[in-house]
## 1
Amino acid sequence: MRIITFLSFYLIIFTGFAQQDSLIEVNIEDSVLTTEFEEKKGRLIVPAKSYISLDVCCVEQYNQKLKENSFSTRNPKEEILKVTCKENTQAISVADGKVALVLKTEGAYTVVIKHGKYGAVYSNLESVSVKEGEDVNEKQDIGVVKTKNLNTVLNYELYFKGNKMKVANWIKID
């Protein structure tokens, strides 16, 4: 795992591009992945192999520290999906894509998977089973959800070209 600068993290999450990507040129693979991802709107799988409950909440409820750190520019009403799981549950990719980032902060991993111009953020992982640059398939294991204080919760966010999407509009809840 490499050390990532704030600029790299910002470019991947908030603009949808890594430093090595051209902001002008859009490759064919990204176009195909974007189209395939858009066709799944409202039908994306829950990003965990099994779950106890799902909760869509605003970022402000999820992380009160937003006002204190560099992510304070986010709209506090933006949504995040909290997936409560059993211990040792695998987080899984919601669609085909490419791992853009694996980052460890504050004792937990975050994985960003690009689905064309969409970016899915999976955070609060104990361990990861993917590497940056790796192609992933729908339902592929990406890591084990971390348990802290008897709570096992995966946090999932979705972006399009750096803009936060309403997760509830994308995930199919059975």
## 2
Amino acid sequence: MATLSDEAIRKVFVELQAKFIHSQQQVNTVKTQIQSKQRERKMAELTRRELDSLNSETRTYKPVGKMYIFEICSIEI
């Protein structure tokens, strides 16, 4: 049975360690993205609830560039 030298074992260990660190960084990136999307979803749900509570004739303004354009509140699902 062939045995690996200490240098070969060390080299394999360093490679595995680098792969592990890279994988951990990717996992952390994905976790951050998930948290961000959850915050966005919660904000969208809160906005939707507020808009649903408005009367259909409520005056609203939509931001367009640096100005606001008047429009009647029309909820589209």
## 3
Amino acid sequence: MSSSSSSNNNSAEAGPSSARHAEANAAVRVFRPPPASNSSTLSGSASASASASSSASASRSSASASAMAMAPALDDEEEELKPTPDELKQAFRSTISGRHGPDAPLLTRALREREEQRLFSSRTKTWENVRIRIRFSDRTMIESTFTEHDTIEAVYRFLDSCLDTTATKGSAVTIYTSPPKTEYSRSDPRLKAKTLRQLGLIPSAVVSLRWQDPQMNANSFPAPLKPELGAKAQDLPLPPSFEPNPTTATATTPTSSSSKPVPKWLKNIVKK
């Protein structure tokens, strides 16, 4: 009788959130990591871009050195007009103090109030659905929705419902976020009554796992998910590309040098 009553009590303590995740895994989204070939291609492209950038920088440095070597000495009048290092430092300090001192523009205050209002509305807004993604060491992720009143224990129960116990072999696991690294231990009594809102995991968060078995923390260790979940895995969407459009860059490039004055030393070279 005692064992059955204790199990009933545990079921009652589990609450509706655990029942929701234990009944079906239909709401679970599984994202498989990108293939290694894509990673190597991206790294190769990055290396090629870095090499091209370094070559271009070296060419520009050589051209600048050649131009400086060909440039004649400055006249005494031009030499007097050059600011000294102390004058440059003083001008820089004046600029900084003007931005943050009593002479700072009024727009700074307006922007600060707008940012404070945005943060306040985010803290006071009620989030019906809180999206939590759990990332494994091989970059596989599982996702589900919770309420802001759920606790970290509900996230642990969802994780338990997705794991293949044969693969985990009873290894303990700890959920954490980073940076900065913050662990949400399942046995920490201070976290049992705190909601996802109080933990700062709203409106969405990506959490990672630290296993007691060090081998399970390796990047090569496959995510220990149930086979039916692995079968419904989908590819992670690729991050957006921030490379500028060549046509746009060409259109915005100035086509004439009339907007800038020609240096005196360059005029002398052209005359020669």
